[in-house]
Amino acid sequence: MFRSFKLSDYDCVCLDLDNALCRYNISNLLQLQYRLLKKQMVDRGYNEKYFSSTLSAEDIDFIQKGLFMDFEKGNVLYLRADGYILKASHGTSAMDAVQIEREYGKSRRWAVTDSFCVNKLSTWNGPLSDKMRSFLDYTDCQASLVFAQAVDFVDAAKGRPDRYRIWPDLLDGIVAMFSSGGGYAEAITEFPGNYLRKCDPQVIEWMKSLKSAGILLVLITGSGESSASKTAAHCLGSNWKELFDLLIFHACKPAFFSEKRPFVNSKETSQCSELQFGFCKAYNGGNWNAFQDSLAKFCKKSEPRCIYIGDNLIQDVYAPEAYTKCESCAVVEEIAAEGFCPGGHPDKPFLVSKRWGSYLHDNETSSDTVWGDIVKKHSHMCIPFLESFARKPISFEFVPFWPTMVETSV
Ligand SMILES: [Mg+2]
């Protein structure tokens, strides 16, 4: 179905920070994270020889956002929209159809991922989150390779167990990697140019043109103010906060859209019921409905029209549309790497995968993946980068295809 899309139709554009407004050098980022997480696993007793000294072409091809880890069985899964297991791997070894059916039955389904397919937040927290996890962005997606290699180690060292217990170690390792002294924050702070890309000047001009047109520009990020400031200052310049009408830190998505957490003034600890818009106004926490109420008063409109633009297909795309009236636009860099848009992608080897297939659509079975289904059903538009919008006037009417991607060169 044709659905036209114009940014000038919106009263408010809300932006995610990491991997949406601020782009990373994904090749360098994933290699850094792999090296740091491998060290954490070795420190927890996993044999170093089952991990790679540097990522091989085969390792890089294994990495993909949105793979599902079955913690107990030690498997990694690539799923069709309805939960059917299209491809699977035990550790790093590809499973054939017979092996998949032996583990998951003739229907090639698993109750835990079936539950996820019905309600995408059902496995976010609670008991099912101890059974499976899918890493959804470049902040952690290389961890599915580390998980698979840890399974290889357990199989070789102890024989194949009935139930693997790698997840608690992997989770500890991920938390330690991102904590002070874990190496991640230190590397980004010391060598930001290795890991972050400077924002295209056209994107900054586009942000200014939205404001000039009377469209409010709001940052909603899960990051805290100090870590967001380091990233944003490198990508956008030291005056980056002035580009926004409102800044929301520690947003805790997807709960920001699905729950009722209070806003806290970022300079104080007191809760606020009504938000003030304007120069460098900033808050922590909060929820969409409270934001929408303040926005309605500020705009003097009962239902101001908003769009949230972000890369995480659960937090930024599914949650806004499933729980609020906020529309969403998916930023999916894979569509550039996979050749859907002219111009390609500088980190293509890390974003495409011959082993698993396309991120959004399995060409072998002509079916959408779980992620392609979310983009189709829950996003109003899908772009590879914000540059896709910045190259056009804000009143430009985009012609979507498949059915919500923007075909535009960047
Ligand atoms: Mg993001």
TrEMBL record:
Q: Which Gene Ontology MF annotations are present?
A: hydrolase activity; metal ion binding
What would be one Pfam family of this protein?
A: 5_nucleotid
Record key words, sorted: Hydrolase, Magnesium, Metal-binding
* Record-stated family: Belongs to the 5'(3')-deoxyribonucleotidase family.
Which InterPro entries did the record assign?
HAD-like_sf, HAD-SF_hydro_IG_5-nucl, HAD_sf
- Specify the species: Ranatra chinensis
The identity of this protein, by name, is 5'-nucleotidase domain-containing protein 1
